[in-house]
Every structure is written in C-alpha cells, then in structure tokens.
C-alpha cells in the first residue's frame, strides 16, 4: 500500500513537472510570437514613415501607440521623418505622442540638411519648419549629437547645416528671423562656435559658411555676433 502511495506521488510530481514544462514552452512561444509581431510592426512603421504613408502609419499607431517612442539604436520614427524632411509625418507622430526631444534631440539633428547633398529652397524650408515645430513642442538644442564621438552639439550641427554656402544660408537666416527664432544654448554646447566663425572668413568663401546666417544664429543662440568668436 505504501509502495502504491509513493508511486502515485512520483507520478503526480512528474505530471506537475511536465505540465510546468509545457506551460513554460507555451510562455516562450507566446513571447516569441509577441516579439515577432512587435518587430513586424516596427518594420512596417518605418516603411510607412519612409514612404510618407500617413494612413498606414495611423493604422499601426492605433494598434501599437507606444511605437512612436521606440528607440532602435540610432533609429526613431521621428528621426526618420525628420531626416526625410517630411513635415506632415513629423506633425502626425508628435500629435500621436512622439516625444519631440526623443533620444537626446536626435530628430532635431536629423532635420539638419547635410553639406554633401543638393537641396532646393523648398527642401530647406520644410526642414526649417520641422526644426521650429520640434523646438516649439519641447525639443532642446542643448544636447550632443547622436554620434557622440563627433564632439559636435545639436545647435552647432544646426548652424553648420543651414548656414552652409550650398544650402541657401541667407534664406535660412531670413526664414528663422521672420519666425522669431531665439534659443538659449548653454556654453558647453557652444565650444565649436570659434571654429564655425573661422569658416565664415573670406578664404573659405567658396566652401565655407554664410557669414550673415552664422551671425544671426550666433546672436539667436548666444547673444553674441560672429565677430566676437574670431580668434585673434
């Protein structure tokens, strides 16, 4: 009788063990499926942003609202939209809860026009609108750029990009001035201003920075004009 009882206890324990293993397998399987679904939605969301498909993006956000603030390495949906210069998608993401200052101002940084690409005035204006909109919604210029080893701040990248001789610097300065642009950038994020000021000198006239644009940006972010940053 005692042997029978022991046997039943062993069988019972084995049953519990097996059932727990089955439950564990189910849990892992469900977790994997959830992870795959999240990954799929993330890829679909990135594709929607890159193609400017607002309806598809809205559909994804309806099912996964938190996706607007997902950070995947250097990638955020807001940063991708800003890098494309898509003002409408940037607005859509912020209206649906995207943090304008996500990933330490990465969206602001990605809105800056590059110095090796060709832009027309409309491209520049859309990027300027994105910058002003993000700042108005809470993005900060007081950050290092996402590529932290570059030693360049977001504010410095902004000036270098919009004031580049090939990016309609006079137009950028006038657009920002007419929209009342002004932002206090702390000194630690202005340590390259002297270098930028140097690029406005005559010897860099063909490939440097627009002096009027840089002067305006320096005054708007530090209260001092470009001349005060020249190294004697």
TrEMBL record:
Gene3D superfamilies: Ankyrin repeat-containing domain. Keywords: ANK repeat, Signal. Residues 1-24 form the signal peptide. Pfam families: Ank. It comes from the Bacteria. PROSITE patterns: ANK_REPEAT. ANK repeats lie at residues 73-105. This is Ankyrin repeat domain-containing protein.
């Amino acid at each position: 009788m005692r042997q029978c009882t022991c046997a039943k206890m062993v069988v019972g324990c084995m049953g519990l063990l097996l059932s727990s293993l089955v439950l564990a397998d189910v849990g892992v399987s469900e977790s994997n499926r959830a992870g795959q679904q999240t990954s799929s939605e993330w890829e679909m969301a990135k594709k929607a942003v890159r193609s400017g498909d607002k309806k598809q993006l809205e559909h994804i956000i309806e099912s996964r609202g938190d996706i607007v603030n997902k950070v995947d390495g250097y990638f955020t949906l807001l940063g991708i939209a800003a890098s494309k210069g898509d003002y409408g998608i940037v607005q859509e993401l912020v209206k649906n809860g995207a943090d304008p200052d996500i990933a330490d101002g990465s969206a602001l940084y990605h809105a800056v026009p590059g110095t090796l690409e060709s832009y027309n005035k409309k491209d520049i204006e859309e990027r300027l609108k994105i910058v002003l909109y993000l700042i108005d919604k809470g993005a900060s210029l007081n950050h290092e750029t996402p590529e932290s080893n570059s030693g360049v701040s977001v504010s410095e990248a902004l000036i270098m990009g919009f004031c580049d001789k090939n990016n309609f610097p006079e137009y950028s300065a006038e657009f920002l001035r007419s929209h009342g642009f002004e932002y206090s950038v702390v000194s630690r994020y202005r340590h390259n201003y002297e270098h930028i000021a140097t690029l406005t000198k005559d010897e860099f006239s063909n490939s440097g920075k627009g002096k009027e644009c840089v002067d305006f940006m320096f005054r708007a972010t530090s209260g001092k004009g470009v001349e005060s940053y020249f190294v004697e």
